[in-house]
Inverse folding.
């Protein structure tokens, strides 16, 4: 007697619906982890360390990961680098109160999210704000040589509400769980789940409108 086939998971549409905009979005968002230079390292067994982790160690291994995270949130390389620099400065100031490497990385993620929010607020209130130069804006997608289809979805992230973009970037680029996203954004787990669902649907609408 053959075993019954499990139903497809909600966020992994089957092949019959592969052409639907939501399916394109889900498939594309699933590739965002390839933009994350530290994602693979964070999911491998830790190698023995000759001593305790230092801020310099984290800066070398996680700076680019955090810069790319910030780029996806603020669409501007220079602003992203400023956000990350401030996040590491805050890490230095709070180093004594952090338990371990995981806590330090969590602190950095939260600082980058909050710093990006502050950056976007300042842009909205600055009378003479000049939009990012096209040569540096939305440059995260070029780092992984994505297909045209994938570039369209990553670019569309910039047109989402900031909170929706944060949740999708942390989920797909950062590979975080709902609980970890909640910790980084200050949202409840239920709000994270509903925000992700609405954001994916919104991106699907955008792709549909372009087709």
């Amino acid at each position: 007697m053959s075993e019954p086939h499990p139903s497809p998971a909600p966020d992994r549409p089957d092949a019959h619906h592969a052409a639907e905009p939501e399916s394109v979005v889900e498939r594309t968002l699933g590739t965002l982890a390839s933009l994350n230079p530290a994602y693979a390292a964070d999911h491998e067994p830790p190698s023995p360390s000759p001593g305790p982790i230092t801020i310099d160690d984290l800066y070398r291994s996680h700076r680019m990961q955090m810069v790319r995270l910030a780029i996806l949130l603020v669409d501007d390389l220079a602003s992203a680098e400023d956000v990350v620099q401030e996040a590491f400065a805050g890490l230095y100031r709070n180093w004594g109160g952090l338990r371990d490497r995981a806590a330090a990385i969590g602190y950095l993620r939260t600082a980058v999210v909050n710093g990006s929010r502050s950056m976007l607020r300042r842009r909205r209130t600055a009378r003479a704000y000049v939009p990012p130069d096209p040569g540096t804006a939305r440059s995260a997608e070029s780092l992984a040589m994505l297909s045209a289809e994938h570039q369209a979805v990553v670019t569309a992230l910039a047109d989402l509400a900031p909170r929706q973009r944060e949740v999708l970037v942390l989920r797909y680029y950062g590979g975080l769980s709902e609980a970890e996203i909640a910790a980084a954004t200050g949202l409840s787990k239920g709000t994270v789940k509903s925000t992700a669902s609405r954001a994916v649907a919104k991106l699907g609408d955008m792709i549909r409108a372009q087709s």
Residues 22-36+52-210 form a domain with the Butyryl-CoA Dehydrogenase, subunit A; domain 3 fold (CATH 1.20.140.160).
